[in-house]
Specification:
Largest sheet: 6 strands, mixed
Strand content: over 45%
Order of helices and strands: EEEEEEEEE
Number of helices: 0
Structural class: mainly beta
């Protein structure tokens, strides 16, 4: 995936799977997308919106300040069931943000 720095209203959607590869039913969960910026350990966190929670599909919409650096970013999802039972962080997925022309 490649995006441009400062893109506005870009929808970043992810399907969250369990370690066994099946879709995670995220009904009732709070899902936070964590965007790790290039060249640093700084992360931006955004609460995701359910598109189809039963099938693990969540999204966030970017603003002009979301993807504010050119380089290789990493996206993780943090899942919280809200009752102290399951908290899980997915493996990271890398994507590139390039300069706007």
């Amino acid at each position: 995936m490649a995006l441009a720095e400062g893109n506005i209203e870009t929808r970043i959607r992810a399907t969250i799977n369990k370690p066994d590869g099946t879709a995670w039913d995220l009904s009732g969960y709070t899902v936070t997308f964590r965007f790790k910026k290039p060249y640093t350990k700084t992360a931006l966190e955004m609460v995701a919106t359910a598109q189809d929670a039963a099938n693990g599909i969540m999204y966030v919409d970017t603003t002009a300040t979301t993807l504010d650096e050119v380089g290789e970013w990493e996206l993780q999802a943090k899942l919280d069931d809200g009752v102290g039972g399951i908290t899980y962080t997915t493996p990271g997925v890398e994507f590139d943000v390039g300069e706007q022309i």
